[in-house]
Amino acid sequence: MNIVLLEPEIPANTGNIGRTCVATGTRLHLIEPLGFRLGEKDLKRAGMDYWSRLDVTTYSNYEDFLRRNPGAKIYMATTKARQVYTEAAYEPDCFLMFGKESAGIPEELLLRNPEAAVRIPMLGETRSLNLSNAAAVVLYEALRQNGFEHLKLEGRLTKYDWLSQ
Questions:
Q1: By C-alpha distance, which of 164, 33, 10, 2 is closest to 95?
Q2: Continuous H helices in the chain
Q3: What pTM value is reported for the model?
Q4: Strands 27-31 and 117-118
Q5: Looking at CB atoms within 10 Å, which of 28, 34, 35, 111 has the fewest?
Q6: Does pLDDT of 162 surpass 80?
Q7: Contact at 8 Å (CB) between 8 and 101?
Q8: What values do phi and psi take at 35, rounded to 5?
């Protein structure tokens, strides 16, 4: 799986998404311009000690991303989509794209790729979810559809194991 952040602005969101990527074996793709420096302490704090294990690639712009990932199957998360994210059929190597926090994915990209647009249902007054929450919601649906391939399905034993008996 791949998560693509198009011009992310908030380092804590990118750090949280990076941590989710490490936990799921997902590659992170960052399309510039970024609203922060990759060495920024907020970014590393959110990603914690996982950041060094993150498979991350940066791109100078969207065209650079397309050129370096020819034939990529991209799903674009947006509040403007008709298709709910659970209705899409995600391939194991697909790219889940999220736009910048202040504006989302540019409308011109959505208009060129309406079949690729997916949305997370929300109450009418809600503008959007936090970027890192939205990324986790869509990513875990894509992973679920692919049988959580490569993920450990059995959890560690805890003092609460008696709850499941």
A1: 2
A2: 11-24, 41-47, 62-68, 107-112, 131-145
A3: 0.88
A4: unpaired
A5: 111
A6: no
A7: yes
A8: -85, 20
Domains, the chain, ordered by start: 2-164 (3.40.1280.10)
pLDDT tens for 63-98 read 999 999 999 999 999 999 999 999 999 999 999 999
pLDDT for 9 beyond 80: yes
d(CA 93, CA 149): 11
What CA–CA distances, in Å, run from 3 to 113, 118, 132? 17, 14, 11
| Res 128: pLDDT | 86
* pLDDT band at residue 44 under the 50/70/90 scheme: low
Rounded Cα distance, 142 and 75, in Å: 10
Q: CB count, 10 Å around CB of 62?
A: 17
Query: Can you spell out the DSSP letters for 27-59?
Result: EEEEESPPSS-TT-HHHHHHHGGGGGG--EEEE
Phi-psi region of 147 (alpha: psi -120 to 50; beta: other; left: phi over 0): left
Mean pLDDT check: name the lowest of 122-126, 130-134, 158-162: 158-162
Q: What's the rounded Cα separation, in Å, for the pair 164 and 33?
A: 47
- Cα 152 to Cα 71: distance, rounded to the nearest angstrom: 30
| Secondary structure (3-state) at 119 | strand
